[in-house]
Amino acid sequence: MRTSYAVGIDVGGTRIAAGLVERKGRTIKEAKVLTPKGGPFAVVDAIIELVDQVSAGVHPSEIAGIGVGLPAQIDFMRQSVEFCTNLPLAGVDVRALIMSRVRQQATIDNDGNLAAFGEFRYGAAKGMRDFLMITLGTGVGGGMFLAGEPYRGARGLRGEVGHMVIQMDGPPCPCGGRGHIESYLGRPAIAAMGRELAKSFKGRAVLEQAGGDIDTITAEDVIKAALLGDEPATSLLMDSGVVLGRALCGLVNLLNPQMIVVGGGIGEACGFMVERAAQVIAEESLAGRRDVRVVQAELGNDAGLLGAAALAFDEHDSREGLAR
Amino acid sequence: MRTSYAVGIDVGGTRIAAGLVERKGRTIKEAKVLTPKGGPFAVVDAIIELVDQVSAGVHPSEIAGIGVGLPAQIDFMRQSVEFCTNLPLAGVDVRALIMSRVRQQATIDNDGNLAAFGEFRYGAAKGMRDFLMITLGTGVGGGMFLAGEPYRGARGLRGEVGHMVIQMDGPPCPCGGRGHIESYLGRPAIAAMGRELAKSFKGRAVLEQAGGDIDTITAEDVIKAALLGDEPATSLLMDSGVVLGRALCGLVNLLNPQMIVVGGGIGEACGFMVERAAQVIAEESLAGRRDVRVVQAELGNDAGLLGAAALAFDEHDSREGLAR
Hints:
Two copies of one chain form a homodimer.
Chain A lengths: L4 E7 L3 E8 L4 E8 L5 H16 L7 E8 L2 E3 L4 E4 L10 H6 L6 E5 H12 L8 E6 L3 E7 L2 E2 L30 H5 L1 H12 L5 H6 L9 H9 L3 H25 L3 E5 H6 L1 H14 L8 E4 L5 H18 L5
Parallel strand pairs in A: 1-4, 4-7, 8-11, 11-12
Antiparallel strand pairs in A: 1-2, 2-3, 5-6, 8-9, 9-10
Helix pairs in contact in A: 3-11, 5-7, 5-8, 7-8, 8-10
């Protein structure tokens, strides 16, 4: 049976968003809560409550299933959470816990993967066969579609775009590694550069955005100052654009994608940084690959939620033997 | 018709090798020449002569075709040479030139890709679905198999493993980029480090390998000194192993392969460097991915030639509608 709706859930480090999504990608009902801090069951409780909220009044048979994006390394084949930095979900059978309490099929996947899936099905990467998505947020994540399919790797752990080494002697990465893309382009890295800048007179506009308190400067303060025309803040983010471009050059050389979609809070707020990265790619990647399109994501914060719903639709359809 | 043989050709910067190869991967006749320096036609002439030599006495109908590996970026779908650093073949229709003079179908591909294909069909990576091959030679190349198929990218340009950025402010790369894997692990980079070492007393064993002439020190001299037990040369190559490991960590995090095959002249000569890299991967890559097997290539210099023959068999079989 061809169902009309899917529930997409996007679990982040700070909030959980849920939506009841139509097949064409329109979200007809949405709900959000702050991510509870009380352990895995509290997170699952919050998910269940959101599912109930957004699916209230819809007959269960009309719902294809629940897709859940987690900020974690997922073994997709086993549907297990292997590794989770920001939430206590490693080893927790999130899928089974959800399915024991809601009469719906649930499928879990990595949030970056689902953001890519969302852009692929409903956003900037519609119709692409080979594309990369990189999401610049608190962490740097992403996903890859190769030959029209999400790439999941040998164990389903898929592409951790944020944890490529781009500077062997670079700053430490929250994951324990060193000199990863995330060490340069995650929110904490940009905030730290902003605080450094604010120690001198050049950083006064950034400091002002933070209400004069240097310790509270965030990545968003740097971006706001730049968007208001502050030269030092702009220059800082342009340098980040060069770093992003260099990192992406390596990926262009390795994967020869048709398109790179830059998303996440930082990527979306900061078009000129993305443009700078695109310039670097056009100048420094290997000949023959420079026609790769570098674009900003189109779905904003909803990409993960919509991708989760798209996953739920696809899983339903393949269970039922329906073609896409 | 199920043919018995294919001709594999491996065109390198210094020599061209050809072989008549049976379906099971045994090379029954081989020939080599130095790569002629006189322009594209001289290279094609040399290829034709080699094809004639190795296929003499075999009826043309018994030969599936000719596979040719070139040290170039190839648009595989168009069968065109897009970019070639060491030989004047860019824009030359090598395939058509060969086919105009030999009554056989010919197919061209990148040499790194074909080395991976060789290891996949006949060597260390038999039965793998997701693996990477990295070849450390004068250049650093490689290939990827993802989900059991060679990965070719959007335009067929495929994975240039050697041109990932691993140090944004690193030394220049022959391709024009900066801080690429090749800038650290290609033969010229290792030779340069060997010459640097030989400026001090610590480098006397390396200097001895080069007959006392510091300017003629090669990567092989460094490796020979290390294999004879020289501590400074060993330490230099161990450091290169750490670089290799860090570079591969990024690829493990990105692609989650089952296996990494390290080949090329440097990779094959230097097992302890490969082991050091494997240690770094086991320590520094993301959890859940550390079970990747890191092995040396099995086919040595023949990988490219055997991969070229395997390609010719596959192309023949798909033309004839035969299953593999």
